[in-house]
Amino acid sequence: MAAPTEGGGLAALGAREAAAAAAQALSLPAEAFGNDPSVEMVWAVKAYQHAEVYFNLISSVDPKFLKLTQVDDQIYAEFRKAFQDLAIDVLDPEDLKSEPAKEKWRPFCMKFDGIVEDFNYGTLLRLDCSQGYTEENTIFATRIQFFAVEIARNREGNNSVVYGRAKAANSHTGASSSG
């Protein structure tokens, strides 16, 4: 196979080949490909697809009954031990991204290295749990941060508003709606 043209990176390949190459590149160490926009796009698409699936899930199943991982109980216990006062209904980005927050999150996240697959994988997290994934309502977080916050939101009833809104919308579109 010929090497991509200089400066073209993965984009110099055809669309199908670029997608396959980018997907394969995700398994390589970051140093292997630098800041290739094609790889960044694959990460963004995968993160968005994950977000879409999750939002559809909490819209169709009562979130109180969801189990997101095999270690939800451990994640929730460790999360609330480390972040007992963190408001999760509407997150402040500073509580995730500021230097003091990063210092507090780092040991929490590292506890799940080897326990939660791809614990530090990039994921989208809603800031206001009563709203969907929009540009204004989304922050980039690690997978373990996503699990910690969303498990807590599910258990503490914060995501019930999404489920309730979807359930009400579905009942209004049914064949026999009264009102």
UniProtKB/TrEMBL annotation:
Pfam families: PBDC1. It comes from the Eukaryota. One of its GO terms (cellular component) is cytoplasm. Residues 39-163 form the Polysaccharide biosynthesis domain. PANTHER family: PROTEIN PBDC1. This is Polysaccharide biosynthesis domain-containing protein. It comes from Phrynocephalus forsythii.
